[in-house]
Amino acid sequence: MVKVTRIARCRYGRELLNWLNRACARNVTELTQQDVATYVYQRSVKLTPGTITTMVSALGCFVSYLSSTGQCSIPLPIYIPRPKPIYEIPAYQALTTQEIKSILQSFDLNTSVGKRDYCLARCMTELGLRTDDAARISLDNIDWRHQVLTLDPGKNHRQHRLPIPDLLLEAMVDYVQNGRPSTTGRALFVYHRAPLGQAVTAATVRGVIRRAFVRAGIAGDRHQVHRFRHTMATRLLSSGQTIKSIADVLGHQSYEASNRYTHVDIDNLSDVAMPWPQGDEI
Prior knowledge:
It comes from Vibrio aestuarianus. The chain is mainly alpha-helical. It has helices at residues 3-24, 33-44, 49-68, 97-105, 112-127, 131-135, 166-178, 202-215, 227-238, 243-250, 255-261, 266-272; strands at 142-143, 148-151, 160-163.
């Protein structure tokens, strides 16, 4: 289990216990299955379908742990009812070629940090990586000769291999040779100040990209970093790639997940649209 998942599961468990104490004036030994169900339904009102699924999964593991260690009396196996997720097409659009160009041009390549951040942005735009995947890239993951990046098992629990485009490879080489601090660590992207030489975190990657959006004058919200993945999926779909191919590139285990990343191609829809019948034709 990756670190970001462990942190999230601990947070959901802590929030459940805080709610139990605050709203019900009871402690963990008095926790019931109805309490968990009530909490989930109350929280679900303000959460997205994806977050609800994540929360229920985390709480299932947490309550199972409490039960198996005798800290509560809820019988195993744990069942937590939840609203059925209904995934909607995201409201934001794929980035245009000019917007991506503006983002990449916003980095100062005359500084070592600028070289690092530019290379990070290239990883996001050309490979559609998740922020935690980009942060975890190791020098040992890169086959320089064959231009292949192997991602260690992360969110999908399996190894993932991607071809490295020429411009991204050039950015990687430039950063390693002319920007990356000397360190015994094997992470590709490291901090240039304290903690010097340690691998950057996913939060650092998000900060790098969000600041680039601001410099490029592109409006966005907290989801703007994920727009790179939506953009890649949309462009692959527009170029005729199958959902399976898109799932392989994005590292999805299910085609349903890839479907949620692809936006409607208006140009292609116009080719298959049927004419609306006139009044006298109905």
